[in-house]
Design a protein that fits this description.
The structure holds three protein chains of three kinds. By secondary structure, chain A is mainly α. Chain A contains eleven helices and three strands, in the order E-E-H-H-H-H-H-H-H-H-E-H-H-H. Chain A starts with 11 loop residues before the first strand and ends with a helix. In chain C, 30% of the residues lie in helices and 16% in strands.
Chain lengths: 232, 810, 315
């Protein structure tokens, strides 16, 4: 039997009351939280060097010098941590037909009219966009980051390239922070989500409400595109 | 220098030729920039390379190294042809009108009296016609064909602009531009200053290079003038002091000469040093020679120098040869005839020519003593440093005794600058480790020698045993004690010759100046030209009053300038026959009807009438010599001779190789290379980032120029496949060096006598000690021959070959 | 001769200016100073410079810096470039004047220009790491420097260098420590030809005017002063023989400005970025307030249970 594209290892439905669904393995959760911590630290340290009013944040890292020294290393950690997430989740984040519909009905998403939304797999279009934006931005950030990591790489780029790199790095960082805000807010707003990353499971209701197709796949054990068709 | 550094700011035209003042004398060069900035003065640089001086010049003219005389005699010819002569000056103040003996002649590059086998001239015909009164015969109309003027005119006529271009490779338009600018200073109200250095001296005809310019300056009326003169830029801060104090092997202090062995007693010695005036009523200052000499003898041996023993004349060494210059010394070592060598502040392994010969010579010694504040290559000549000093230490038996000495900043004393200023300095630090002052070291050597003589006796112990040693601490004479001794003091009261009752200097007092010296043993003076430096007024060298009345540039209250605190030599020549300045804006001194007065100490008796006594009082004629009589070994006029190693044959004297009167030792002649095997004309020089071989020990200087290199043109680089910054090997007939290549537009190939001449520039600051990268020096390549008159080695013009190589393994 | 400054007294003396004279301080603000110091400037007369590098050595010595002994790379420039230790550098250019066909050896002393509108200071994120005094001196305060290298990007002249040892930014201080006790920069003191002079900026301009007049009389029709307005003027100025072509002097920028990329980075991006972040947080907050949490309903749970049981039952 063909394995559904978005069902990952360790994802399993546990009948009961309520039904629980294993969404993330321990490894995936550790991976995520390393990534998350890196990103938060990067944001804090990066912002401290971005705007004078936020320079105080550098105290969290033991002062400006340490901040400057640590930031790129955290970036490297983030890169590899995210690479782990990417390898885990990229398939589940491939764009599907229903994602377009979901996006078109963003108003319904925001107004909690979930009943008007198509059934989606493990990730909805918003999550997928967060995923892909993160992926692209992290590549942009790490490459522009290398160009301005003067301690080791200053000789490989010209001054003009460095200037562009620092601008690109800043803009990309702003965008990724905004994306992160969306990501975190969504997790908070959609109750029951955070548990997926803390304890690894969600309730069946959560899965039914937000990722019904994924739930169906888990239950039926197969990839069923017809679900999407059925939904309109 | 005839003038002073500060006076250069008074000039209208600076000619830097035979030197690179900006590079080698950057501090003194400030006066050139002052002249340019404040007077609109122009700067001409004539050099084989476009130098740092050229970078701020108004006109740069390239010249092939070793052809300066052709260029300069060409300028003289140009001035004569274009009537750009300061006629009143030339007629009154030079020997132009004097008649020369009929026997004197010049043909095919040789003067009358040449002995090819001995490479020497019989100079008897090189002199004036004397009248029955004993004075020189003169033709004031300058029409007599035997007068100096007409002989000179004839002599320089071959040096046309075309010939100059052919010999020197200087493009004619550039040359004529230079000539026109130089000729303008024949005006009484315009002056030109000549700044030169080793670029003129380090040739087999170095003295004549300088003479040629001096003659030009006389014709233009620029000697004795503010902003004029012949200004030798000395290479070491105290090298002027070295010659003043007589450290040359044939000199005594104050430019007196050491006796030869033919001069058996004082009377014989003085018989050729009487300097009777050659024209009526002239001063002929050297008539005072005996006063200076006897006073010197008294300073050496005090009470032991008496009239009865010819003032200890016998205790002076007597020369059997013209001099024991560095070339002769190394030749003698090489032959095994000189077995011990004391190197005081000298690094001959890098600064004498033909390094291979130097290494062999030093290896022949029984002992070598070095006294230096730094570790010199000479003191480590026996140590193997790979390719940089490839010797087999096991085969060298020389015992080397290295005596660490203080450097100038660690002791007190005076330094004489190029402008003859004796400037006192104080210790700025304490010497490191076991370093001792040269005074201490010399005192210890003398005391030990004395003890040995006392114990063992000897053939001639008196010069050592009876040496006057009046110092408070005999173990270490103090600088001020020595300075007072150089100044001189009255052994007995000194009376005024005009009024024998008037005491000029009381017994035991310091003398005011050399005018108070006596030849009867009543005065003592170590160096007559320094007399006045430390008299009863105190240490005049330590004066630091920089007032300068009317901004005239004299600064007469700053330090002490020999002689007699005079800042411009021959300054009487700055005024006309009535004693009035040629240029009212450039007054130095003027005759007020009774005496001379002005900014400077007159270089003539204060009451010497202007229309009677000539300005050049050190000559018995009272005038300056365009024709130098028998003073020079290689001719009374300069002649263009090619360097001994030259890319072309001498166009004006094809049969003559090099300077025909220069001394060449037999083996060295055989080692000269020729243009077929070594086609490129090389020259050596210094860089501003370094001071000789010292500053490669200094970290910041080593950073500024870290590594030995040679400079070549883009054309030669292309021809030889040499890359900028790549490695090259440079070879002469005496050795080879490996260097980085600096490929530059600042060196251009020259067209000389129909041939393309490529120039290879080789700077000299690297060796195998210090903190800079190890490297070679040009002396590995240079020929073992010196100037005919003073034996300064020919470092500036020699032949090499060059090729690109892979990076050598160190 | 521009009158040299007298030697200092051996008695200790108080600094003539300090913190109270700051007009700019990186990543922070300063109170308006109560007085305006006389603006100073270093004037480098390229036409008088002989490239002796005394300024470089004086700079190393005064600042007690040591550069490494390098190698010859086929040129006279040593070291190769400005470094964290070498704040000033003679740059040599062999230029053939197309008009006369004569070679000119152009030697320019490179180093911090002390811009009136300093790009380094603008770019610096560390409060007080770069300061500007009302006399025009732009100085790096190393204890505040975090070594990020933003000053390098901000500088239109490519001057600051980051140390590989202590990771701080270094550049010419215009000898602010010497100027503070009435002395001029060490380089000017060491310069043998007065190619470097130091004094009030207005005096320097007048001195330059005389030099330019002299150069014009020597045929340098385009001689002029380099005091580029694009950075508000500088407190290190050049007299150039060819002021119309500053780029021939080892790429001296013709019209230097803070790079537009840097302006964008330190201008719009800085403010727009924070606004964007704040907006996203704000919108999220508002959204939550307005729409409330998206909760899973009991019906969802029942549906899930049903689905699960259906399937398990089906098996």
């Amino acid at each position: 039997m063909e394995k559904p594209y978005d069902v990952g290892p360790g994802e399993r439905v546990h009948p009961g009351d309520p039904v629980t669904v294993d969404r993330y393995t321990t490894a995936a959760r550790i991976n995520h939280w390393i990534t998350a911590a890196s990103l938060v630290l990067l944001a804090l340290s990066g912002l401290s060097m971005f705007h004078p009013s936020l320079f105080f944040l550098s105290k969290l890292f033991g002062g400006g010098e340490n901040t400057r020294a640590i930031h790129p290393w955290i970036g490297v950690v983030l890169f590899f941590a995210f690479l782990g997430l990417f390898l885990r989740f990229w398939k589940a984040n491939l764009w599907k037909r229903e994602d377009g519909t979901w996006m078109a009905r963003l108003r319904d998403v925001l107004t909690k009219h979930d009943e008007n939304l198509p059934e989606v797999g493990k990730y909805n279009a918003g999550q997928k966009m967060v995923f892909w934006l993160m992926s692209i931005l992290i590549i942009v950030l790490i490459s522009s980051g290398f160009a301005i990591w003067d301690e080791y790489f200053s000789q490989y780029t010209t001054l003009d390239q460095k200037r562009i790199a620092v601008l690109v790095h800043s803009i990309a960082a702003i965008v990724i922070i905004c994306v992160w805000i969306v990501h975190v807010y969504a997790a908070i707003w959609v109750r029951g989500t955070i548990r997926a990353m803390t304890r690894g499971w969600v309730t069946g209701g959560w899965a039914w409400r937000h990722h019904r197709k994924w739930l169906r796949e888990l239950v039926t054990g197969k990839n069923d595109d017809s679900g999407a068709k059925r939904a309109r | 220098m005839t003038n002073s550094w500060t006076d250069i700011r008074n000039t209208d035209l600076v000619v830097i030729m035979g030197g690179n003042a900006a590079e080698a004398h950057p501090c003194g060069f400030k006066w050139v920039t002052e002249a340019k900035a404040n007077r609109g003065a122009k700067l001409i640089v004539v050099d084989p390379r476009f130098t740092r001086s050229a970078s701020v010049a108004d006109v740069y003219a390239p010249i092939r190294q070793g052809t300066d005389i052709a260029f300069l005699l060409g300028l003289i010819n140009y001035c004569i042809q274009n009537d750009k002569i300061h006629w009143d000056y030339v007629k009154a103040f030079t020997n132009a009108p004097y008649l020369v003996k009929d026997g004197f002649a010049y043909q095919d590059g040789l003067f009358s009296g040449y002995d090819e086998a001995k490479r020497e001239y019989d100079k008897t015909s090189w002199d004036y016609q004397l009248g029955e009164d004993g004075f020189v015969m003169v033709d004031d109309t300058l029409t007599n064909p035997r007068c100096v003027w007409n002989l000179l005119k004839q002599h320089v006529s071959v040096y046309t602009p075309e010939m100059v271009e052919r010999i020197c490779g200087t493009p004619k338009d550039k040359y004529l531009k230079v000539a026109a600018m130089v000729a303008e200073t024949s005006s009484p109200t315009k002056t030109m200053t000549s700044m030169y250095a080793l670029g003129w001296t380090q040739h087999s005809k170095g003295s004549q290079n300088i003479r040629a310019m001096a003659m030009l300056q006389l014709l233009l009326g620029n000697i004795g003038m503010r902003g004029g003169g012949m200004n030798a830029l000395r290479g070491h801060s105290n090298i002027q002091g070295l010659t003043d104090i007589g450290l040359m092997s044939n000199l005594l202090p104050g430019y007196m000469t050491l006796p030869t062995q033919k001069e058996v007693d004082l009377a014989t010695y003085m018989s050729t040093r009487g300097f009777k005036p050659l024209r009526p009523d002239q001063m002929s200052y050297w008539q005072n020679y005996k006063k200076f000499f006897v006073s010197f003898q008294k300073s050496m041996w005090g009470e032991a120098a008496t009239p009865a023993n010819d003032f200890a004349y016998d205790w002076l060494p007597k020369l059997d040869v013209p001099g024991y210059d560095v070339l002769r010394a190394f030749e003698l070592m090489h032959q095994g005839k000189m077995n011990g060598y004391v190197c005081q502040g000298f690094n001959p392994l890098l600064s004498a020519p033909n390094r291979k010969k130097c290494t062999e010579a030093l290896s022949n010694l029984k002992f070598l003593v070095t006294m230096d504040p730094l570790d010199t290559e000479t003191s480590r000549f026996w140590e193997n440093h790979g390719q940089y000093n490839d010797v087999d230490s096991s085969k060298i038996q020389t015992e080397v005794i290295q005596l660490p000495s203080t450097c100038f900043a660690e002791d007190e004393g005076s330094l004489v600058n190029s402008g003859r200023w004796l400037q006192w300095h104080w210790a700025g630090g304490t010497p490191p480790g076991e370093a001792k002052s040269d005074n201490w070291i010399m005192a210890q050597i003398w005391r030990r020698l004395k003890a040995l003589y006392e114990k063992e006796g000897g053939a001639l112990p008196d010069p050592i045993l009876k040496l006057r040693w009046p110092y408070a601490n005999p173990d270490e004479p103090k600088a001020d004690e020595l300075a007072r001794e150089l100044n001189g003091y009255a052994i007995e009261a000194v009376y005024d010759p005009a009024d024998p009752t008037k005491v000029l200097a009381e017994k035991g007092k310091q003398l005011l100046g050399f005018a108070q010296l006596r030849d009867d043993g009543t005065t003592s003076c170590g160096c007559w030209i320094y007399s006045g430096c430390f008299n009863e007024n105190g240490n005049n060298m330590a004066r630091r009053d920089n007032s300068d009345p009317d901004d005239a540039g004299f600064y007469s209250k700053w330090a002490f300038s020999w002689p007699a605190n005079r800042r411009i030599l021959y300054n009487r020549a700055s005024a006309d026959m009535n004693g009035q300045p040629w240029d009212p804006n450039r007054k130095v001194i003027a005759w007020n009807g009774q005496k001379w007065e002005g900014y400077d100490v007159p270089d003539v008796a204060p009451t010497a009438k202007p229309d009677v006594v000539g300005p050049f009082i050190m000559n018995p004629e009272g005038t300056a010599r365009l024709f130098t009589r028998t003073m020079m070994k290689d001719g009374p006029f300069p002649v263009h001779y090619e360097p001994f190693e030259s890319p072309i044959t001498n166009p004006i004297a094809p049969k003559v190789r090099g300077n025909p009167a220069a001394r060449v030792f037999k083996d060295d002649m055989a080692q000269f290379g020729d243009a077929e095997k070594f086609p490129y004309a090389a020259t050596s020089y210094r860089l501003t980032e370094h001071f000789h071989f010292w500053t490669k020990h200094v970290q910041p200087n080593a950073v500024m120029q870290p590594e030995f290199f040679v400079e070549i043109s883009e054309q030669l680089a292309e021809e030889k496949g040499i890359k900028p910054g790549g490695w090259v090997k440079v070879m002469s007939n005496r050795g080879e060096v490996r260097a980085k290549a600096v490929v530059t537009k600042r060196i251009k190939p020259l067209q000389c006598d129909g041939k393309t001449v490529h120039i290879v520039g080789i700077p000299l600051h690297w060796g195998f000690t210090g903190v800079a990268k190890k490297g070679f020096g040009p002396n590995t390549l240079t020929p073992f021959v010196g100037d005919a008159n003073i034996e300064t080695p020919e470092f500036k013009a020699f032949l090499v070959d060059i090729e690109a190589i892979a990076e050598p393994v160190a | 001769m521009y009158p040299p400054l007298p030697n200092p007294s051996v008695q200790p003396s108080a600094a003539v200016y300090g913190e109270q004279d700051l007009i700019r301080r990186s990543a922070s603000s300063v109170p308006a100073p109560s007085r305006q110091l006389t603006e100073v400037a270093k004037l480098i007369d390229v036409s008088k410079c002989i490239g002796c590098k005394a300024c470089q050595v004086a700079c190393l010595e005064w600042n007690d810096m040591r550069e490494e002994v390098g190698e010859n790379r086929g040129v006279y420039d040593n070291p190769e470039d400005l470094t964290p230790a070498m704040f000033t550098l003679m740059r040599f250019t062999e230029w053939v004047n197309p008009e006369s066909n004569d070679l000119e050896w152009l030697i320019r002393k490179d180093g911090c220009m002390h811009c009136a509108d300093p790009g380094c200071l603008k770019a610096c994120p560390a409060p007080g790491a770069i300061v500007q005094y009302s006399n025009g001196i732009v100085d790096f305060v190393h204890e505040n420097c975090i070594g990020c290298g933003y000053c390098v990007k901000g500088c239109p002249f490519n001057i600051p260098r980051i140390s590989k040892v202590d990771h701080k930014a270094y550049k010419c201080t215009l000898c602010s420590d010497r100027v503070a006790v009435g002395q001029g920069p060490a380089c000017a003191k060491a310069c043998p030809t007065q190619a470097i002079v130091f004094g009030p900026k207005e005096d320097m301009k007048q001195h330059a005017a005389k030099r330019i007049e002299d150069l014009k009389s020597r045929g340098f029709a385009n001689a002029g002063l380099y005091d580029p307005p694009g950075v508000g003027g500088t407190h290190v100025m050049y007299v150039l023989h060819h002021a119309d072509k500053p780029e021939i002097y080892a790429d001296l920028p013709k019209d230097p400005k803070i790079s537009p990329v840097v302006e964008l980075w330190k201008g719009l991006t800085k403010y727009a970025g924070l606004t964007a972040i704040a907006s996203f947080v704000g919108i999220g907050f508002l959204h939550h307030v307005v729409s409330g949490a998206n909760r899973v309903s009991d019906e969802d749970e029942r549906n899930a249970k049903r689905l699960t049981e259906d399937q398990t039952g089906g098996r």
